[in-house]
Amino acid sequence: MTGQQGSGGIDPGVIELAGRVFDLARAGATEQLAAYLDAGVPVDLTNDKGDTLLLLAAYHGHPDTVTALLDRGADPGRVNDRGQTALAAAVFRQSGDAVLALLRAGADPDAGGPTARETAVFFDLPAMGALLDGARS
C-alpha cells in the first residue's frame, strides 16, 4: 500500500511519520526529534488539533526538547485550536526551565486563552507567576 493515498488524500507513510514525530516530542526524545527536524520535518508541524511539537514538548515537561525546537526556529507564539500556547502548557506543568526558554524566545505570557498568567493564577502556581512577572522587567 506504499505510495497510495489514504482517505484524506495523504500518503499513509507521511501520516505514520508525523505520528512518530509527535510521539518523540511527547516523550522528550530530543536527539531523535532533532534528527528528523534537521532532515526536513517542519519545526512548526501541527496535528489535527493545532498542537505543535513545541506545545507537546512543553505540556509533557521536556525543557531540553523545548530548547531544541526553539533553537531550530519553532514559533513560541503559536496557539492551538483551543487557544493554548506552549508557555501556558509549561506553566501548567511547572517546568521552570521550559518557561524561561520560551520567555527568552519571545513567548507572550498574555497570549492565548487561558494565558500563561491566567494558568498560573488559576492553578495557584506562585513560582510560575513570579517567572512570568520577571518577563515584564
Q: In this structure, how is the largest beta sheet organized?
A: none
Shape: globular
CATH class: Mainly Alpha
The ordered string of helix (H) and strand (E) elements is HHHHHHHH
Question: What multimeric state do the chains show?
Answer: single chain
Helix percent band: 40-55%
Spatial separation of the terminal alpha carbons: 56 Å
Q: On the 0-100 scale, what is the average pLDDT?
A: 93
Per CATH, the superfamily is Ankyrin repeat-containing domain
Give the count of structural domains: 1
The number of strands is: 0
Structural class: mainly alpha
At the fold tier of CATH, the topology name is Serine Threonine Protein Phosphatase 5, Tetratricopeptide repeat
Number of helices: 8
Computed Rg: 16 Å
Going by CATH, the architecture would be Alpha Horseshoe
Can you describe what's shown?
- The structure is a single chain.
- The termini are far apart.
- By secondary structure, the protein is mostly helical.
- The protein is globular and about 45 Å long.
- It has one domain (12-134): Ankyrin repeat-containing domain (Serine Threonine Protein Phosphatase 5, Tetratricopeptide repeat, Alpha Horseshoe), CATH 1.25.40.20.
- Helix 1 (12-27) runs parallel beside helix 3 and helix 3 (53-59) runs parallel beside helix 5 (86-92).
- Residues 1-7 have low confidence and may be disordered.
- The chain has helices at residues 12-27, 30-38, 53-59, 63-71, 86-92, 96-104, 116-122, 126-134.
